[in-house]
């Protein structure tokens, strides 16, 4: 059994901030799913405000983490690990906001079905990351972390396959050159967001292995 709590002692501020970061990452992806649903339902211009707020909240969490690190002379874990995980979590809402910004200016009829499977895999990845981060507070086994990481790796691998399939359809379909360029970038942005989740999961695995 590995327990960060033993290392952190009674001060749980780092747990709080890491979990808040993981939660905000999942929330931002939930907002993306809802945004796509609104588009499909015919909502003309769904608001982007929630995405901006989510990214700003994640940024504040990261700032607080950096502030706490600067105040703490001796950290319970290597500073590089805490900083790396905090930054990896911050990048997820940032990626999601970029996706929605690009979708919001997409010309013509948006291909909702093409993004449905990608959104599902992104949700799976975010939920796995949140689970892994929350395991750190209560103490965990390497087996639980591996199981969650397996789900995360599966989502990342499937996202690669889905993107390749979408690109194949795009290249062999009736789309004009401009549409191909725009959609290719959007597909890649969503796949990159899944990669951001995977990167956060890898850092959690490394932390647990160091202290197992």
Automatic annotation (TrEMBL):
Pfam families: PhoU_div
Origin superkingdom: Bacteria
Gene3D superfamilies in the record: Phosphate transport system protein phou homolog 2, domain 2 (1.20.58.220)
Organism: Horticoccus luteus
Stated family: Belongs to the UPF0111 family.
Protein name per Swiss-Prot or TrEMBL: DUF47 family protein
């Amino acid at each position: 059994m590995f327990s960060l709590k033993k290392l952190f002692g009674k001060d749980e501020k780092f747990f709080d901030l890491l979990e808040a970061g993981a939660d905000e990452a999942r929330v931002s992806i939930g907002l993306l799913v809802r945004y796509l649903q609104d588009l499909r339902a015919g909502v003309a211009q769904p608001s982007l405000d929630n995405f901006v707020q989510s990214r700003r909240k994640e940024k504040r969490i990261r700032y607080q983490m950096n502030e706490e690190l600067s105040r703490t002379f001796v950290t319970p874990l290597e500073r590089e690990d805490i900083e790396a995980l905090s930054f990896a979590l911050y990048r997820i809402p940032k990626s999601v906001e970029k996706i929605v910004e690009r979708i919001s200016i997409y010309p013509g009829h948006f291909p909702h079905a093409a993004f449905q499977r990608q959104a599902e895999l992104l949700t799976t990845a975010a939920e796995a990351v949140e689970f892994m981060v929350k395991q750190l507070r209560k103490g965990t086994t390497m087996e639980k972390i591996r199981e969650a990481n397996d789900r995360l790796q599966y989502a990342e691998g499937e996202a690669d396959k889905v993107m390749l399939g979408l690109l194949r359809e795009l290249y062999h379909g009736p789309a004009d050159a401009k549409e191909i360029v725009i959609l290719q970038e959007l597909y890649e942005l969503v796949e990159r967001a899944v990669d951001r989740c995977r990167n956060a999961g890898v850092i959690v695995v490394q932390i647990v292995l160091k202290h197992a």
